[in-house]
Amino acid sequence: MILRLPVRQYIAVPSANPRGLVTQTRELPVADTVLIELHCWNVGVPGGLPVPDDYWVFMGSQQNHERAARIMAEVIAPCLDAARHAGLATVHVQPESIALRHVELLPRPGRAPVPSPPPLDDECEAPAESHVTARAERVHDKGYTAWEGWQHLDVAPAVKPQPGDAMVVTTEEFDEWLRTRGVTTLFYTGFAANLCLLDSPGAMKAMNGLGYRCILLREGAMAIEFPDQPPNLHTEAALRYVESWVGYTASADDFIRACSEVGR
């Protein structure tokens, strides 16, 4: 069975007059393709944790959280349902703290997830460690890592895992899981398009570096935006970054339509 839908990338040549955005229809075997929910958290969503006034966490502002909640409910959830109905594997890429709440979905059920390695090994000290902490606390406010909400972080109710889904924590275990199934193409949804969707374990840059075809569903993601800048500035920039250097983008509506046509 084949998934057929148009995907978009940026063609930067000829350099004096680039071709720009180019769309091509791809034919992707369902068995070789997965849909990913990455870091859709239960902050600022119905039935979830309230957005804290004192700290900048997850999507930051109240406005960003409200928009993210709509995307989860109106775009990502229907994409997950369509993928499951079409027979695509659906995978949740989440940090260890959340994976421990869903051990039955891990590649090795009954075992704790393998944590991501720390950025520095035990024998290496940061050259400016106090600067790193101080800078982060100026942005997020001092003590944000101790926000009590972190203890209750989970997948948002609108996109909660279903029986048959999988969950992974690290790039290494995700790569192993995919290779054993012959998967080559990864559709991504989630947050944030200018941060975790690019740089977290199991995210687009890491998996593209391992040779996977990575496609971001445009309406199923957003970047962290700032109130003193034009609306959607960082989301559009993140999409262009993906289309130029990481992989492809596709329409969520086209993805749902393609799923509905599988097997016809």
Can you walk through the features of this model?
This protein has helices at about 60-85, 95-100, 130-140, 170-180, 195-200, 205-210, 235-245, 250-260; strands spanning about 1-10, 20-30, 35-40, 90-95, 165-170, 185-190, 215-220, 250. By secondary structure, it is of the alpha/beta class. The chain has one domain: Isochorismatase-like (Rossmann fold), CATH 3.40.50. The strands form two sheets. A six-stranded parallel β-sheet has the order 5-4-3-6-7-8. Strands 1-2 form a two-stranded antiparallel sheet. A hairpin with an 8-residue loop joins strand 1 and strand 2 (about 20-30). Helix 1 packs parallel to helix 8. The longest helix is centred in the first third of the chain and has 25 residues, at about 60-85. The protein starts with a strand and ends with a helix. The mean pLDDT is about 90.
Strand and helix map with partners:
Elements: E1 2-11, E2 20-29, E3 33-38, H1 62-86, E4 89-93, H2 96-99, H3 129-140, E5 166-168, H4 171-181, E6 185-191, H5 196-199, H6 204-209, E7 213-222, H7 233-246, E8 248-250, H8 252-261
